[in-house]
Amino acid sequence: MIEFKKGQSPLFFDEKCGYLKEIEYGKKKISLFSGLWKIEAESGALEIKDMTSFRHEAYSDMLKLFWENEKAVVTVTLRSEESGKIYWSINVDLKGENTVGKVIFPIFEGLKFENEDYLLVGYQNGTLLKNPVDSLLSKDEQIPFWMGRGKGAYENDYPAGLSYQYTTFYSPGEFGYYFATEDENANIKTFRWAYNEKVHGIDFSIINYPENMGKTSNYCMPYEFVLKMYEGDWQDATKLYRKWAIRQKWCKEKLSEKYLSENLVNTDLWRVNHTNGKLGTRTEEYFNTSLMLRDYLDCNIALHWYGWNLNHEHDWDSPDYFPDEVKKIGWPEKLKDWNGRFSDEGIIKIPYTNARLWERTTKSWEDFSASKAAIKGEDGEIFNEPWTPEQHLTTICPSCALWQNKVVDMCREFAVDEGFDGVYLDQVASFNAMLCFDESHPHPRGGGSWWNDSYHAMLRNVKSLLGKDKIMTTESCCETYVDVFDLFLVLDTCFQHTALNAVMGCGNSIPVPLFSMIYGDYALSYGSICCFPDNLDRFEYNYIKNILWGMIPSIEAGEMQELEEKKDFLDAVKRGTDFYKENKEDILYGRLLEIPKYSCDTFEITWKGKNQGKTPGIYSFTDSVPEIYAVIWQDSKGRKKLYAYNFACKASSMELDGKKYEVDTKSFCVSDLD
């Protein structure tokens, strides 16, 4: 066999054909039979088995593998670092008139563990999948489109469908595979985890999309893929990724070095009516309940406002948020007056808008000939977004000047003319990048980094319009936009609402705070689906946990009757906002360092949610959670602190590293660890 022993994890390749056959890690020998790559070309697919010759060249810290036949030459290069990382890249040259489509590389087939295992997926904020083969990948169900794609597989795209460029598959007490791409330019790519029926395991691969897909005969991977074997869990993998991530161009400044607007710093609570858009259309009630919250909690409030345009449905009439029937009743003028009243009371307000979709039934679709700027598939057809049957939503290509100018004009109308304190641009850091094959657009056909580059150009123009004191925010937390948004709306941190639980059920999808752990000292997050109609235990657990993870305190909606009747919910909210105000500088400019292992008593919470797929309905499961939830925090000066909260209706204690901490009922604990 061909040996590559330059790293901490020796690799062994078949000497006749070049298949990856074995990985060593410590005393463990992991048997595989991986084809490494697959090329989708105009003349058909190419794999290792199709190649007529294979050879290799070995160097001191590098291995080159070469395959060739009458259609193509494929070269894979491996190099190692002392850190234990092995870097992989691929070059494809097709012969004759043949052209390159997708390049699937690398491919690792038949990954499995004998004991309980976990898969970390960078979907939205971050999700840890327990026993992913049984709970997700081997199921014969189609994953709902807003969670990714797949049937017998899970795949999602970067940037934005996935927020990060890494994943890990590990078994506690054994070892883990750390897979990452180190791509500072955010080229469009797909991470794919598929069911391997032969071994009842996982196949992992990355689908690469060349610039000028279907027109070029060459693909030279514009970044490197990383493999590292390690011992530990998802937190250890996340620490590995952070070392690379914070050196990228989107992390030029820490929050402590950036200018943060007064409105942003002063806000103690975000009120988000994501699940109750109708409340936002009842402006007087929305105003009065905001004053009630402000006065009861004694804190500064910011509104993430859905329904401000009298339509509670997401994206209806986008981007014509003031259609004729709304203008006829004088709503733009009335809204400006309402914004003035909110401002007089010290309440910040940010309107919902969408920076990605155009509804084809709007007057502006025809007036602007918007179809010219729409995303086009390889067949030249416009892609229809499947959100709501009654809507006709189309993704607009962010590279087109028509859309860039339309978004800037929209932001000018709302943030400047209407008196809002900034804008929320939905889906930019949430929904996946798309390939576009319209050759009249100013971007390479198919893949490349143009999606990320185009949105950055748009967002810089919006920020220039808004000025430094207006707030610009977006949905979710894709890392590549850390340098352009002021903060990120993260909605998937609450256990019962975590999106993949809708398919996996029974708590197999566990939210984890990847964004705070990687970028907590570089970017801010807020948002919540902690709702007043929920059970108090669940509400308090999710709300407080989010704050301990580093998110600015956030709650959902709160109608007048709920605020009048649910004082125990308000008291929980006040405990959180008081803690945040007291520790604001450390939370704003520090970061979540780790969730430590400690011991304390537990209590039970019953989680509920809606199933998707073949088994619709309500799922419910009961889980034991710690009475005291504790994290280790690092403040802006690098000092380590213990942050903890006691959920129990009695004094309780926890033990960490041999030290006992007493925490009063429904109280926080802050303790220096240095």
Account of the 3D structure:
The chain is α+β, with helices and mostly antiparallel strands and 674 residues long. It is 23% helix and 33% strand. It has 16 helices and 41 strands. The strands form 8 sheets. Strands 7, 8, 9, 10, 12, 13, 15, 16, 19, 20 and 30 form an 11-stranded antiparallel beta sheet that branches. It has an 8-stranded parallel beta sheet with strand order 31-29-28-27-23-22-21-32. A hairpin with a 5-residue loop joins strand 12 and strand 13 (127-130). Helix 9 (401-417) runs parallel beside helix 10 (450-466). The protein is globular. It starts with a strand and ends with a strand. The mean pLDDT is 94.
Integer average pLDDT: 94
The helix-and-strand class reads alpha+beta
Helical content class: 10-25%
Low-confidence stretches: none
Oligomer: single chain
Q: Give the termini distance in whole angstroms.
A: 50 Å
The major β-sheet equals: 11 strands, antiparallel
Strand content: 25-35%
Number of helices: 16
Q: Can you count the beta strands?
A: 41
Q: So what's the overall shape?
A: globular
Tell me the Rg in angstroms.
26 Å
